[in-house]
Amino acid sequence: MTSDAALSKQRVVVEAVRLADREGVDGLSMRRLAGALGAGAMSLYYYVASKEELLDAMIDVVFEEIELPPEETDWQSAMRRRAVSTRQVLARHPWAIGLMESRTSPGPANLRHREAVTACLRRAGFPVLMATHANWLLDSYVYGFALQEASLPFDTPDEFADMAEDVFLPQLPPDEFPYLNESAAVLAAAGYDPAEEFSFGLDLVLAALEPLRVPT
């Protein structure tokens, strides 16, 4: 049993993130968190005043893990590194995908991240409104891909091939679904890796944004 005196806000938040990683955020409650910490439920309110404040702090932990766009490279390389890092972090914390844009009291890491992204786009020559468009587009792509990836029933090309052959193809008779049948068979045989779609789509997004800036 942990003494309440051994608690800290950091420990409370870190344990909340661990719980959410294992079980999702919907089941997270102060009582459940207190039990995991071996503390009294009411003692947690000394460190976080409400569930919303706890979620703010948890999302700040997620933003802290995301690599900021580096300043020493071109804007596309910088935003690509940031997008790749965001995808990796959200794969570790899939519960956070739907909460990244929901916080009205963002923490310091959240604000540092947004400032760095905006600075990268503005220094690259995107006017304020166009930088906002670019930020929305990039975030929508990364969050959407992360959400779709988290729901896939397979993790590797081999697992995809097995599912294509054993699950998908039997449901796709070629006389009724000729193109879907062909696609499933060809992709399974080719060792198709759905994870590679991220880079393909990201490159298209970045290329589409390039003509919209005013180079400095």
Automatic annotation (TrEMBL):
InterPro entries linked to this entry: Homeodomain-like_sf, HTH-type_TetR-like_transc_reg, HTH_TetR, Repressor_TetR_C, Tet_transcr_reg_TetR, Tet_transcr_reg_TetR-rel_C_sf
Pfam families: TetR_C_1 (PF02909), TetR_N (PF00440)
Residues within the DNA-binding region(s): 29-48
Record keyword Cell membrane present: no
Keywords, alphabetical: DNA-binding, Repressor, Transcription, Transcription regulation
Annotated ranges, domain HTH tetR-type: 6-66
Stored PROSITE patterns: HTH_TETR_2
PANTHER family reported for this sequence: HTH-TYPE TRANSCRIPTIONAL REGULATOR RUTR, TRANSCRIPTIONAL REGULATORY PROTEIN
Protein name listed in UniProt: TetR/AcrR family transcriptional regulator C-terminal domain-containing protein
